[in-house]
Amino acid sequence: MTILVLFEHNLRLDDNPLLARAAQLGGQMLCVSLGDPLGQPGPFGLSRIGRQRQHFLHQARQELHGALTTLGQQLVLIRQPVIPALSRLIERHRVTHLLRERPLASNEQALSRLLARHHPNLQLEHLDGHTLFDLEQLPFDIEQLPSSYSIFRRAMLTIEVKPPLAVPQALPDAPPEVTPWPHIREHRARPFIGGESQGQRQLAHYLDGPAPGHYKETRNDLEGWQNSAKWSPWLAAGCLSPRRIWQALRHYEQSWGANDSTEWLKRELLWREYFQWYALKWGHKLFRLKGIGERRPLTSFYPSRFLQWCQGTTPYPLVNACMHELNETGYLSNRGRQLVASALVNELQLDWRCGAAYFEQQLIDYDVGSNWGNWQYIAGVGADPRGGRHFNLEKQSQMHDPQGRYIHKWRGDCQVALEESHVDWPEETP
């Protein structure tokens, strides 16, 4: 028996159900990761992955490979196109079982369907490791997922998060003649460095002090390393387990005491959780202009406006500053993301999917469910009973940047007139 373990959004040894299942099955084990080629075409002429996130994932895979070698394994990296590369491995090593995390987004589900079609005798198993809860723990069928986050959160209050699995002390042997791990040039661009150890370090760093107890008051700040947890890049790549974070938060509450802020941190994890299952329920509707509804938003596409938004040269200084930070660091505060999304949809009257696709390209912590679900929420075509969000940019500047320090730091002061020419945009993403 040969088991192929697929490392996608689970670049870690800690709390990894795939490794536990492989050890239970026995036999030989082949560890495989799918590479993300820089510039891979995405919707609207953008790339699916930018340089910042690719470097972060390279670092994470490099560290994972090193950790696997200490247990007698190694990580095999395959490039696009995925199906031919995986098929060659399956046939060469006579793979009998393939283990992967449950695919939640529609494009991830397509990979499993293709594998099943090309290899009908392959035992394909999906396990839940990217979410707090297993699919079987949900107190409703996925088709009955609540239409709003607040209903979902209340429904999950009585469901216990399973304790995380320990790092394995041993792994099944690798099959002979495994392709060597390719050399990847090191790129250490702080503050976000990919890898399980870095994610664990950030988890411990944030919880080692009073910051979580003040999270509710600081979470909307535009800047400040300790003003939010900053776990999202490692969560998105799977370097950190959401269950490990949940357990660590519970331990923090036992030591420092629980309050509204620690409760809010757990609510944020549940928001992320909701959008994972939201992606599974709605499939291709996650990417539709109409979202999960049937009413087409009254927006158009102005190429010049979109370019100004991307480059941070709009008439709105706060938006410009946020976009400059995003482009230079691959990261943006939650409040900043809401503001630039609201501006794209409302002030600039652009197709919300363009903004979501640009975030997919730029963000280090890109997560398909959270990204596209949150953009639907802002645009009023998703899980928002109030029909979208429109932030007053002047008021937001006064609240969150009254002295203009953030705008000055990120050079948001340029003013550019908007052009009115527009072009038709397709109903569906390519």
Strands, helices and their partners?
Elements: E1 2-7, H1 17-25, E2 28-34, H2 51-69, E3 75-78, H3 82-92, E4 97-101, H4 106-118, E5 123-127, H5 149-156, H6 196-207, H7 215-218, H8 232-237, H9 242-256, H10 260-282, H11 303-311, H12 317-329, H13 334-347, H14 352-362, H15 368-379, H16 393-400, H17 405-409
Parallel strand pairs: 1-2, 1-4, 2-3, 4-5
Helix pairs in contact: 9-10, 10-15, 12-13, 14-15
General description of the model:
The chain has 430 residues and is of the alpha/beta class. The protein has three domains: 2-129, Rossmann fold (3-Layer(aba) Sandwich), CATH 3.40.50.620; 196-284, Alpha Horseshoe (Serine Threonine Protein Phosphatase 5, Tetratricopeptide repeat), CATH 1.25.40.80; 303-409, Orthogonal Bundle (DNA Cyclobutane Dipyrimidine Photolyase, subunit A, domain 3). The protein has 17 helices and five strands. The longest helix has 23 residues, at 260-282. Mean pLDDT is 91; it is low at 420-430.
Largest sheet: 5 strands, parallel
**Rg over alpha carbons:** 22 Å
- Give the CA-based shape: globular
The number of strands is: 5
What's the tally of helices?
17
